[in-house]
Amino acid sequence: MSTRHRTASRARGGSTARKLTYLTLVAVAFFSALPLYYSVVVASRDNSALADVPPPLFPGGNLLANVSRVFDTVPFMLALLNSVLVSGAIAISVMFFSTMAGFAFAKLRFRGNRALLVLTVATMMVPTQLGIIPLYLLMVKLEWTGSMYALVVPALINAFGVFFMTQYLSRALPTELLEAGRVDGCTTWGLFWHVVLPAARPAAAVLGMLTFMSAWNDYFWPLVVLTPENPTVQVALSTLAAGYVSDYALSLAGTALGTLPLVIVFALLGKQVIGGIMQGAVKG
Amino acid sequence: MATRAPDQLRVSPPHPPSRSGDPARLRHLLYRLDVKASPYAYVAPFFLLFCAFGLFPLVYTAWVSLHEWTLLSDVHTFIGLENFTTLLADDYFWNATFNTVSIGVLSTVPQLLLALWLAHLLNRPLRAQTIFRVTLLLPNVTSVVAVVVIFSQLFGRDYGLINWALSWFGVGTIDWNAGTATSHTAISVMIMWRWTGYNTLIFLAAMQAVPRELYEAATIDGAGGFTQLRKITVPMIRPTIIFVVITSTIGAMQVLAEPLLFGIYSITGGPDRQYQTLSLFIYENFTKLDFGYASAISWMMFLFIVVAAVINYLLTRRARGSLT
To answer: Do the interacting molecules here have an ipTM over 0.85?
Structure first.
C-alpha cells in the first residue's frame, strides 16, 4: 500500500521532468544519427544538388552511380577484402588468447596472479602511439611494411580483452565445474579446451565484435605502414577524401560503403555490444 | 580487483603419490608441472606481445631521439640532447602544444559533463532504453575517417549544413577551416560527437551499481534530480570518473586523424598551422623522415601526458572533497 502510494506521488511530481528527460534523449538521439543520415543524403545526390538553398534533406537517386565511381577511383574491393581479413583475424585471435589469459587470471592459482593482472590493466594507460617510429623501424626490419602482417601481428591480443574475459570468467564460470574436470584427470589444457572455451562463448562473442569494430576503424597505424595501392577501407577512404576534395558525393559514397555494414551489424546486435562495453567498464 | 581468491581452482592431485612405480611418479611430476607452470604460459602471450610491440618501441623512442636519425642513411650520429634543445626553441612545437591543449579542453570538458548528465538521465526506468543506448553509441561505431569526412561537409563554408542552420539566426558565413578558434571548435565537435555516447555508457554502467535506496531516501527527503546527481551519484562513481578523465586526457593529447583529415590531408594542420596538434607535428617530421626529431617530440609529449594525467587525477580527487 505504502509502496504504491510512493510510486504514485513520484510519478505525479516527476511527470514534467519525465517529459523533459524524453525530450532531451530524443534530441541527443537525433543529433547522433543526423550526420550519418545526412552523409547518405549527400552520397545519393549529384554534386550540383549540394549547392541548392535550402540544401537537399532527402536521399536522391544517384547512390549507385556514386558508388561505382568509388570503385573506379580507389582499389575499394581490395580494401574491403583486406579489412575483412585483418579485422577477422584480429578478432579471432583476441578472443582465443584473451580467454586463455582470462582463464588463468580468474581461475588458476599462481604466484603473482593479482600483480600481473593489475599490470595488464595498467598497460591500457600507456600511450603506445608514441612508440610509432620504432614500431615502423621494426616493421621495416621485418619487411612487413605494406603488408597486412604489420596490422595483424601487433594486435593479436590486447589488455582490454584479457581484462574483459577475466571479469566474465571469474563471475560466470563455476569453479566446481573445473574441480570436477580435475578429478576426472583433465590437464589444465584439457580444462581450457573442454570446459572454459564453451563456457566463455557469450562473452567472447561480444569481445570479438568489439575487437572487429575497432580493428575495422583503425586508421593511423594502417596509414603509416600501408601503401595506397594495398589499403584497408579506412586508408582508401582517406585517399578518396584527400584526392577529391570538392567531390563530396564521391567521398561520402565511399564513407557510406565503408561504414554502413558496421552500423547495420551494430544496430542489429547493439544490445549485446552495449552490454559488453558496460561490463568491461565496471572495475570491481 | 576482478579476481576473488576463494573462488580459484584448488590444487589437489587427483591421485595421491604412490610408490607403486615410476610411471605413477612421472605422472604426478607432470601434473605438478602442469599446475605450477602452465598458468604463466596462459598469460604469457599478452606480455610478450606488449613488450615487443608496445613497450619496446616506446623505450626505443628515447634512444632514437638522441640521434640524428633518418631513414635515408644507415649512419645514425649520436647528438645527445640536441634534438631536445632545438625542439624547445621551435615555435612550431609550442604552437602544436597550444593547439593540442586548446582542442583537448574544448572537446573533453563539455563532453564529460554532457556524458555525466546523459548517464544520469538514462539511469532510471525509461521506455525505449535500448534504442536510446544504441543511437548514443552509433557515432562511436563510425570510423574516425568517416566522421571527419562527414563533418567536413557539414562544416563546409559555402554549402555546409551547419552554416545554413546558423544563417537562420543571422550568423554570417563562417569559414570554419580558416581561423584558430573556429577550426578548434569544429574539431572539438567531431571528437565530442564520436565519444560522448561511449563515455555516457561507461558512466551509466558505474551508476547502475549505486544502491537504489540512496536515491529513494533522497527523494523522500525532497532532493531534486540535480542535487541527487551532485551529492550521491558523483561521489559514488568517483573511481570511474577518475578513470574516464584520465583516459580521455590521454586520448585528447594524441588527437591526430581529425586535424589531419579536416585539413584535407594537410600534415601542417592548415596553412597557418592553426590546428596542427602534437601528434600531427610528430607525423609531419615522420613523413620528412626526420626520425630523431620526431622521437624527441614523442618523448616531450609523453612527459606532457604524464603531467596532464597527474594533474587531472589530483583535480578529480579533490573534487570529491567539495562534493561530499
So the answer is: no
